[in-house]
Amino acid sequence: MNVYDSDRMSELLTPLGYERVASPEKADVVVLNTCHIREKASEKLFSELGRLREFKKRQEAAGGRMIITVAGCVAQAAGEEIVSRIPQVDIVVGPQTYHRLPELIARAEGAGNGPVFLTEFPVEPKFDHLPTTRSVRGVSAFLSVQEGCDKFCTFCVVPYTRGAEYSRPVAELIVEAKMLVEGGVREITLLGQNVNAYHGAGDHQEISSLSGLIERLADVKGLARIRYTTSHPRDMDLSLIEAHGKVPALMPSLHLPVQSGSDRILTEMNRGYSVDDYLRLVDRLQSSRPDIAFSTDFIVGFPGETDAEFEATLALAARVGFAQAYSFKYSARPGTPAASKGSHVDEAVKTKRLMELQSLLADQQKKFNDSMIGRCLEVLVEKPGRHPGQLVGRSPYLQAVHVKPGNGSVSPNIGDLIKVKVVDSCANSLGGLVDSRLCADTLTKEHAF
Question: Which residues, other chains included, contact 189 with Cβ-Cβ below 8 Å and sequence gap of 6+?
C-alpha cells in the first residue's frame, strides 16, 4: 500500500516541475512515507530524519532549501512527537490526505510558518482528487481498491491510522486498470488493508464483492494476471473461494494471515475465527484450486502466550505447509488494547520462539521451491537479470524465476508470458530454461506438495 501511495504522491508533484532523484542529499523535497505496524519502522523513521536534518542544514548554508515531509501512518499517529524531536520537519500528512501535498508544499514554502499538519480524516475520499493517469515503471503494478479496517484486532493500529473501511467504485477501478494495461502492465495486484472486505459500488449502484471486481478485471484486454492482498480469513466468502477455481487470470497464490495457532490467543487478538475455521478455509480453497499456494503472517510472543500455545502455532504451520510466511515478534503499538495487557512475554523467549518458527517456515519454503524442479511454469518476464542473457520473472506462485534461453530458443521480451522448465531452486527463487522442446503445450497443475 505504501508503494502505491508513494507512486501517487510522485505523480501529484510531477505537474509542479518535480522529478524523482536517486538520493536525498540535494533534493528540494524529501517525502518519507511511513508504516506504523511495528516499532522498528518508527525507529527507522527517526534515524532517517536525523540524517536528512544534516542534509537540510548543508543546503540552507549554501543558500538552498529542502522541504522535509513525513507522510503515512506514523505521521497520522505521532505527528506532534515527530516535530518535537525533529523541528526541521516541514510537513506532516496522514495517509488519507496526501492528495493535498501540492497545497501543503506551497504553504511550507512560506517563510516562518512553522510545520504544516494535515492528519484529519477527510470527508471525501482522496481517490476523488488524485490524478487520473498513472505512471508505469514495469509490467506489474499495484491497484488500491480498498482502505481502512473495521476489524480492530487488539494488536493493530490500522483502524486508528487508516480509518474505517472504504471501497472504491468498480467503474473507477476498471478505468485505472485499463490505463495501467495501456502503459504495458500485464499483472495487477489489488491492494487493501482488508482487501477481501471490498464492497464497492457497481455500475448500477449495486454492491460488488471482491470476486465480482476480479471477474470484471479479468475481462480487461491485455491483463494477464490478477492477485490481491492482504486478505482476512473472516471475509473469505464462497464466491471468492470459487473465483480461484474459475477465473484463469487469478493467480494460485494467496496471502491469508493466521497470526497464531492458539484459539485463546486468536480470541485475545479479536481475530474472529478459530484454528478449525482457518483450516476448513484452507481445505475449501484447495478443493477449488488444487495447486493453490498459501503465504501467511505470524505473531509470536503475544501477551500471555504460553509454551503450549506457541507449540500450537508450530502445529498449524506444519499442518498447512506454507509456501512463504512473514513472522514477527509481538510489537506493542501505543493506543492498541493489547499494549495495555499484562503478562507480556520476555523478549528472550519471543526471540527463541521466532527463531524456531522461522526455521520451520524456511524449510517449508525451500520444500515448496524444490517441488517445482522438473515442472513447466508460466513466467511473466519482468526485467533483465544480472548475468548476460538472463531474465527475471515471476511464477504463478509469486516466486522469482531466473531464466536463460535454452538451445536454439529466441530470447523473450519484457512483459512476455513464457513457459519455463524449472531446473534449479534456491531458498527464495527458482532457475529455469525457456525452450519450447522442454515443455508440453499444456502447463501442469499438480499440487505443490
Answer: 140, 141, 142, 143, 226, 227, 228, 229
- State which amino acid sits at residue 295: S
10 Å CB burial of residue 317 (0-12, 13-18, 19+) is buried
- Which of 423, 251, 247, 254 lies closest to 323, judged by CA? 254
Cα 55 to Cα 231: distance, rounded to the nearest angstrom:
40
Average pLDDT of the chain, as a whole number:
91
For 123, list phi and psi in degrees, rounded to 5: -70, -40
Neighbours of 16 (CB within 10 A): 11
> Which of the four pLDDT bands, split at 50, 70 and 90, describes residue 443?
very low
pLDDT digits (tens, 9 = 90+) for 110-140: 766 678 888 877 767 888 888 877 777 899 9
Please give the helix or strand (H or E) that residue 75 lies within, else none: helix 73-85
Report the SS3 class of residue 25. Answer: coil
Amino acid residing at 61: A
Domains identified in the chain and CATH numbers: 2-118 (3.40.50.12160), 126-370 (3.80.30.20), 376-434 (2.40.50.140)
Query: Mean pLDDT throughout 209-217?
Result: 98
Distance between CA atoms of residues 291 and 277, nearest Å: 21
pLDDT, one tens digit per residue, over 251-286 is 999 999 999 999 999 999 999 999 999 999 999 999
- Strands in 225-229's sheet, in edge-to-edge order, are 140-144, 187-191, 225-229
